[in-house]
Design the sequence.
């Protein structure tokens, strides 16, 4: 599984998360709305997964491994939008 | 007309001209990067102007052209003649709108149709550039600007903005919209927004896409469109213009400030009448301006202030809002928007009518100066002690008025570019219509001449150019047979020669067939056959200036309609100039306009007849002679004199003007010999007066119908002097 509920209650996203992960993620978040989502091992996330993260305003931990996620998507999910900087 | 709109029309016309010039050069040299940039900037600024004054139809039409040029700039769209044509069509439409706007004082109501046709044409012929969807609601307009405003760090690099609204069920088709955006070449920034507000998490359907994705890229529109594939149909793609920097951007910022200042001025009008209208208008302009510049928050503030001002019918709230905005923009705003500080304005835009007033006043001053000269003369004749002083003062005044006149006339001087710049385009069109390829070479377009002359030159020059194309330039097979280049060369040259300006149109066509001219003139009985035969070739060529003369074998819609070279000559003569034609058979024709540099002063000589004084333009006078009355020979009903073995028709001025003649018999009489178009004629007058330089005023009102009078001028003693039109008189 690329989405996984760790024993300490942290929801972990890793590698390439697929569309099916969206539903699982939603279920985990509904069960524990304040759960932290750790995505530092996540390389790619399907739009549906990102959509769940946006809608739930889940608290994210770590910078995702995938560059695109890190540079372009993570700022959109941060509590305060930060302007991406590309050099 | 609203001052803002007036300014907009003036500036837009200049930009249209600039864009036209650039496009025409681009057509010939598609690799000219500078011209491409310049054309793009012109279109961009045109669009900006339309946005500021609130003319959405024009904004959209110009935007379509701008998009295309943006694609060309990023190398994705070859600069083909079709592209140039389409952009020129857009400019034509803009000119039409501007004409209507200038005439009616407001934007044409039917502009939407024209804009739609243009946008369709642009969309149909080229890469899938999606036109901005105008009027589809506030969410839709300005999204790209908003996106740019959100990502200032990448603003400068952004070339294209894209907004993709996928289908709700796109996930089922195996799509991953975010991945699609990730794959965009040169992606700079991404933004994800819910299409509909996010529901509570338990109501969210994780398999339905509720996103609108927008992005900025540093690649061109076409590349983005290609990368999007099928998603393109659900996307808005806009070529960004924020990449424009330098003078254009500065000009835009400057103008924004000027526009806001104009609104404050408008609001500070105290008259209660029309106040509501002023508030609405100023609010609208400021609102549009803010939106146009991507200052959405400011736009809201302005709208808010405007509604408050409207509610309590006092402009104060709006005025304060605009002033705050102005301060913000000019001080700590975007550095690009900061007005250049401490820079003196080098150029002023002055209404031409004001300059004309100044010219007229200077003319009056000249007359007053002449009056003092007259007074000085009287004083001397009467032996007054003031005579010397008066004469000295008159000398000083003479010098100063002379200098004033020079500078004032210098202000009314324009480079001939103003009229020349319209011709490359027209020649291109005429060449296409006639199927005779030709290039126009313009030289000396920075030669200056009085505004009156520059403006009056268009019609006659156009006529001569048309003639050159229609009659001068041979059809391609004939050129080939003669061993000439297939593309004809037409030169339009101007130069200054002392107090004269010479404008010349020459072609490398077939030249004027003199034999044919004699034939046609004989056919039309324009002169007796023996006269025609005795004419030199040069004289025969001048027959083309006769009214109704046309040798063209077939009448085209371009020329040969009977309003021929006679109209050209009349127009040029009215400016105080003359037309000369030179021609070599099979080598080409050249038509020269010799014009005065300024139209104000005319040198005349005064003559007396029937107790009245009249002026004769000095440039028509060849000589003045005294002859014995016995040497006048009656020829039929008229008189003639023989002067140096040449017989000249003699006209008595008093008789010709129908004023009582001096009946006292004299042994000698004074004759003025004048030359009109190379023809000599003699005018019998009672006496000769003095030479002077006068400002000739055309006759107006009741007197304008008087034949043989070219105009009038005021003399030093306050009397009116009529100046004779020698051409009419001696004909």
Sequence:
């Amino acid at each position: 599984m690329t989405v996984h509920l760790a024993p300490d209650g942290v929801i972990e996203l890793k590698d390439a998360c697929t569309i099916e992960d969206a539903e699982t993620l939603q279920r985990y978040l509904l069960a524990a709305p304040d759960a932290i989502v750790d995505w530092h091992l996540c390389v790619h996330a399907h739009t549906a997964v990102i959509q769940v993260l946006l809608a739930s305003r889940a608290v994210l931990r770590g910078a995702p491994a995938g560059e695109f996620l890190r540079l372009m998507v993570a700022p959109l999910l941060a509590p305060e939008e930060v302007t991406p900087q590309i050099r | 007309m609203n001052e803002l709109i007036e300014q907009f029309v003036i500036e837009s016309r200049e930009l249209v001209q600039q864009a036209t010039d650039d496009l025409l050069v681009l057509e010939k040299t598609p690799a000219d990067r500078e011209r491409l940039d310049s054309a793009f900037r012109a279109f961009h600024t045109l669009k900006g102007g339309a946005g500021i004054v609130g003319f959405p139809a024009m904004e959209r039409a110009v935007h379509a052209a701008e998009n295309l040029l943006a694609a060309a700039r990023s190398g994705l769209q070859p600069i083909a003649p079709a592209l140039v044509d389409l952009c020129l069509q857009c400019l034509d439409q803009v000119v039409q709108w501007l004409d209507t706007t200038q005439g009616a004082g407001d934007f044409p109501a039917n502009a939407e149709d024209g804009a739609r046709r243009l946008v369709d044409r642009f969309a149909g012929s080229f890469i899938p550039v999606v036109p901005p969807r105008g009027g589809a609601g506030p969410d839709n307009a300005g999204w790209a600007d908003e996106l740019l405003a959100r990502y200032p760090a990448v603003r400068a690099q952004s070339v294209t903005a894209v907004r993709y609204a996928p289908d709700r069920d796109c996930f089922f088709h195996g799509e991953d919209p975010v991945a699609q955006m990730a794959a965009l070449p040169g992606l700079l920034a991404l933004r994800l927004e819910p299409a509909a507000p996010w529901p509570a998490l338990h109501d969210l359907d994780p398999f339905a896409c509720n996103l609108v994705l927008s992005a900025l890229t540093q690649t061109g529109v076409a590349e983005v469109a290609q990368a999007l594939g099928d998603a393109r149909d659900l996307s808005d793609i806009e070529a960004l213009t924020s990449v424009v920097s330098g003078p254009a951007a500065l000009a835009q910022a400057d103008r924004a400030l000027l526009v806001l200042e104009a609104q404050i001025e408008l609001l500070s009008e105290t008259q209660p009448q029309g106040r509501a209208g002023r508030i609405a208008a100023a609010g609208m302009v400021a609102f549009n301006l803010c939106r146009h510049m991507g200052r959405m928050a400011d736009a809201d503030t302005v709208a808010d202030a405007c509604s408050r001002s409207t509610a309590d019918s006092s402009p104060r709230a709006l005025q304060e809002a605009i002033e705050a905005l102005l301060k913000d923009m000019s001080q700590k705003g975007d550095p690009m928007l900061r007005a250049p500080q401490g820079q003196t304005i080098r150029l002023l835009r002055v209404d031409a009518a004001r300059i004309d007033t100044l010219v007229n006043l200077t003319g009056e001053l000249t007359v007053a100066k002449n009056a003092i000269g007259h007074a000085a003369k009287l004083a001397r004749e009467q032996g007054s002690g003031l005579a010397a002083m008066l004469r000295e003062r008159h000398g000083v005044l003479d010098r100063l008025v002379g200098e004033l006149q020079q500078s004032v006339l210098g202000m009314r001087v324009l480079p001939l570019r103003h009229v020349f710049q319209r011709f490359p385009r027209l020649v291109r069109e005429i060449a296409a219509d006639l199927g005779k390829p030709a290039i126009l070479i313009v030289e000396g377009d920075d030669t200056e001449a009085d505004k009156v002359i520059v403006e009056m030159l268009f019609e006659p020059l156009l006529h001569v150019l048309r003639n050159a194309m229609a009659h001068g330039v041979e059809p391609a097979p004939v050129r080939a047979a003669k061993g000439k280049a297939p593309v004809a060369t037409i030169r339009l040259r101007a130069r200054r020669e002392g107090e004269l300006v010479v404008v010349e149109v020459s072609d490398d066509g077939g030249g004027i067939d003199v034999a044919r001219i004699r034939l046609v003139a004989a056919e039309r009985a324009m002169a007796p056959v023996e006269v025609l035969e005795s004419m030199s070739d040069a004289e025969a060529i001048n027959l083309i200036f006769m009214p109704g003369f046309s040798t063209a074998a077939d009448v085209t819609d371009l020329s040969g309609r009977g309003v021929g070279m006679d109209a050209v000559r009349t127009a040029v003569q009215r400016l105080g100039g003359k037309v000369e034609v030179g021609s070599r058979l099979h080598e080409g024709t050249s038509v020269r306009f010799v014009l005065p540099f300024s139209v104000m002063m005319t040198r005349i000589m005064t003559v007396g007849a029937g107790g009245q004084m009249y002026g004769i333009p000095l440039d028509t006078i060849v000589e003045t002679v005294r002859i014995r009355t016995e040497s006048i020979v009656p020829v039929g009903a008229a008189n003639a004199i023989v002067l140096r073995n040449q017989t000249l028709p003699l006209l008595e001025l008093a008789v010709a003007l129908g004023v009582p003649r001096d009946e006292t018999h004299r042994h000698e009489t004074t004759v003025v010999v004048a030359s009109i178009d190379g023809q000599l004629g003699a005018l019998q007058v009672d006496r000769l007066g003095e030479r002077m330089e006068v400002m000739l005023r055309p006759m107006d009102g009741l007197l304008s119908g008087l034949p043989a009078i070219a105009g009038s001028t005021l003399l030093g003693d306050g009397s009116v002097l009529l100046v004779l039109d020698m051409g009419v008189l001696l004909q």
Summary: The longest strand of chain A covers residues 36-45. Residues 81-87 of chain A have pLDDT under 50 and may be disordered. The interface with chain B takes residues 19, 22-23, 25-26, 29-30, 33, 44-48, 50-52, 54-56, 68, 72-73, 76, 83-86 of chain A (CB under 8 Å). Chain A is about 40% helix and 25% strand.
